Amino acid sequence: xxxxxxxxxxxxxxxxxxxxxxxxxxxxxxxxxxxxxxxxxxxxxxxxxxxxxxxxxxxxxxxxxxxxxxxxxxxxxxxxxxxxxxxxxxxxxxxxxxxxxxxxxxxxxxxxxxxxxxxxxxxxxxxxxxxxxxxxxxxxxxxxxxxxxxxxxxxxxxxxxxxxxxxxxxxxxxxxxxxxxxxxxxxxxxxxxxxxxxxxxxxxxxxxxxxxxxxxxxxxxxxxxxxxxxxxxxxxxxxxxxxxxxxxxxxxxxxxxxxxxxxxxxxxxxxxxxxxxxxxxxxxxxxxxxxxxxxxxxxxxxxxxxxxxxxxxxxxxxxxxxxxxxxxxxxxxxxxxxxxxxxxxxxxxxxxxxxxxxxxxxxxxxxxxxxxxxxxxxxxxxxxxxxxxxxxxxxxxxxxxxxxxxxxxxxxxxxxxxxxxxxxxxx
Length: 427
Hints:
It contains 14 helices and 14 strands. It is of the alpha/beta class. The protein folds into 2 domains: 10-48 and 295-426, Alpha-Beta Complex (Aspartate Aminotransferase, domain 1), CATH 3.90.1150; 67-291, Aspartate Aminotransferase, domain 2. The strands form 3 sheets. An 8-stranded mixed β-sheet has the order 2-9-8-7-6-3-4-5, sandwiched between helices. A 4-stranded antiparallel β-sheet has the order 10-11-14-13. The protein starts with 15 loop residues before the first helix and ends with a helix.
């Protein structure tokens, strides 16, 4: 081409959750059955969709209204329903999107070029990739400490905010992805206080809040926002479960407290106007699903199931010196950090299939990350497809599996296999 077509920051657009799948598919083509522990989709992992929910969706498909272009902001009746649950917002403070990337991309791209976001380390990769592409610059992060229940380093956060006036917003993911921490009210109020002190705004990614194991742990931005401008992100795609709904919205707080923030929110809406509308069917059925008497029952059953699997994982892995496992406090993921001071050297497992080994080696060629090598060799040796969390812009060496396996015996087999694989380090 007569001119380079690539964005200067194109290499930051990575998503390790999907990238390891390409390798797993090649291995599977060698007549190997893969244990798909990278998948965050409960439906693919054989979780049954409740019949009452299917009936609501089926009945809605009989109505012509679900096939039309809905208003850009979303259906008035749905926004009124959401606002009725929260006295701090009105329907005009709610805006819907077509899924995760649509929301995050528009929110970051609407910022001025030199306005920066400080976000947690580790961070969910969709946030970090979008921010890097927006800023054309290195990430700015504050640390979450695995040896302190993944709590943020508040002193580090404030120092970075204080000495970098380009930082205009603090991103908080709570419940946090990928650490599976749930932050206390005291910690969250401290972050709000920092934003207020330095005239910033807040974005809280709260898409998993309904899947918090203990209701006492759940603290929302709306509970502590005071008069600080802020945005909360919500999503129905996990707590129903319905990942394919692509139904995401934001709730805007204190838009009238800052004129510049108000104009910024208006620019997000303007970018939405260019695409006509969001998906109609999922938003149309949302109130009826949430108000159904079976919803809370179904949600509690799922939480009990995930919590029991988290306890089972802890039972199998807690005593290994090579790792730190902090039990999840929400949802259906399990992250395991390596204690690198306990791991003397890397090993290559015994060669059993040269073709598969070549596939794996080509995939990790040049990588200096221990967690990536671990996950790809784990895939080659045991056929368990996990996720190296180096892809989450993390300074830690760690990896992730899910708590979604419906077959308890199979899940115990997966945990036992991972345990034995880690124990090979000692040989």
